[in-house]
Amino acid sequence: MILRDVLRAGAGEMRAAGIEDAMRDSRRLMAGALGVEAGRLTLMERDEVAPVAVAVFHDAVRQRCDGVPVSHILGWREFYGRRFEVTGDVLDPRPETEGLIAEALREPFGKVLDLGTGTGCILLTLLAEKPGAKGVGSDLSPGALAVAGRNARALGVGARCDLIESDWFSAVGGLFDLIVSNPPYIAAEEMAGLAPELAHEPRMALTDEADGLSAYRMIAAGAGAHLSPQGRLLVEIGWQQGAIVSQIFSDAGFAEVAVLPDLDGRDRVVSGRWNGAKKS
Q1: Running DSSP on this structure, what letter comes out for residue 233?
Q2: 0.85 cut: is pTM over it?
Q3: At the fourth CATH level, which superfamily is domain 87-274?
């Protein structure tokens, strides 16, 4: 079978199943089946595809039609130019989170703490970008910590990070120049309206089973005890949470509180600097 025809057939099957960007997904799945970069497929469109690769591709298409995310079918997702393993134990790295990375890298840091590390994409990217830095990643899920550990080793930063099982700060010790987190921020009442693909990600990484703000309250309340003087706290937020999370930071004693937009202009990151003086 000719590659171009197989791609079109796969895209048509996914489109009929209601998958958006079906051709993009078709190309990504075919690249995975062939073991090549997706960009190479344009040069291969008139080539014949081996039957075994066609069978792998069709199986992947069936999974995608059932709502399985492409990243879970392939077993990885790219983030900040690096490949991260993903499984059902972790939240997929998302492009929006790259804004948090960019903001964190605006100032030097020697030690960083990532709360709810998941794949480790935030922590490990920061360590990869700052070769002299060390870090700690905490998570309540042993499965997530196992994934983060494999990613740390694959990226060559395993010797510079500790991965610990912890309920936020419960098992964390020491001071850090930077604390980062992409906590669960979806309110429980909003979960039913989410995209079907999110059913394949851990619920505890998506929602706090409350108003979507409880993690920010806990992080802001505990961060001061773990930040060096003038240390920074950066968290990802839902696009409608900028004002209220900023107030949570201010009430906890953070200065220079700011809301930063993503590339679409929506509120995405709240930052604050620890001045050691909680409001009375």
Answers
A1: E
A2: yes
A3: Vaccinia Virus protein VP39 (3.40.50.150)
